[in-house]
Amino acid sequence: HAEAIYIYFDDSVIDYNTLLDVLFVAHDPTTLNRQGPDAGEEYRSAIFYQSEAEKATIDSNIKKVDASGKFSDKVVTQVLPYKEFWVAEGYHQNYYELNPSNGYVARVSRPKVEKVIKTFPDLVKARYK
User: Fold this and answer.
1) Rounded to two decimals, what is the model's pTM?
2) CA 21 to each of CA 27, 42, 51, 57, 98: distance values in angstroms, whole numbers, following the listed order
3) Torsion angle of the four alpha carbons 99, 15, 47, 120, in this order, in degrees rounded to the nearest 10
């Protein structure tokens, strides 16, 4: 398993490429099996595509990120076909919103969210700014 989210989106509102841009700002795609203090295969960077068109867009975006020089290492994000998604236990649902003073949220999650808000202010709904 991998810790992941399933994103439902309307491509007339936001396109897949933009979602990928947000992803590559929100986390470090160059660290193998690790995100922040969390280590292990379940914390690997991965994108699960549902069509060949999505796969092509992902591959193109990764090449763009690698060529940008934004990161000193190459992207190690796994690009895999979508198979199945398991919903996390209830106590994991809306964790960020329900636990704003949690140490992990404050030290790890909030800086990532703030970075996305700063980089993509026009994409963030007013109530989340």
Assistant:
1) 0.89
2) 11, 22, 19, 11, 26
3) -40
The DSSP bridge partners found for residue 48 are 80
Q: What DSSP state is assigned to residue 51?
A: S
> Are 128 and 22 in contact, with CB atoms under 8 Å apart?
no
**What is the sign of the dihedral through the CA atoms of 82, 87, 88 and 92?**
positive
Query: DSSP letter string over 27-38?
Result: S-TTSTTEETTE
Quote the CA–CA distance of 117 and 123 in Å, as a whole number.
Answer: 8
pLDDT, one tens digit per residue, over 42-91 is 889 999 999 999 999 999 999 999 999 999 999 999 999 999 999 999 99
Q: How far apart are the C-alpha atoms of 25 and 33, rounded to whole Å?
A: 17
For the chain, give the mean pLDDT.
93
Strand partners, 46: 78
For 49, which DSSP code? Answer: E
**Beta strand pairing call for 34-35 and 38-39:** antiparallel
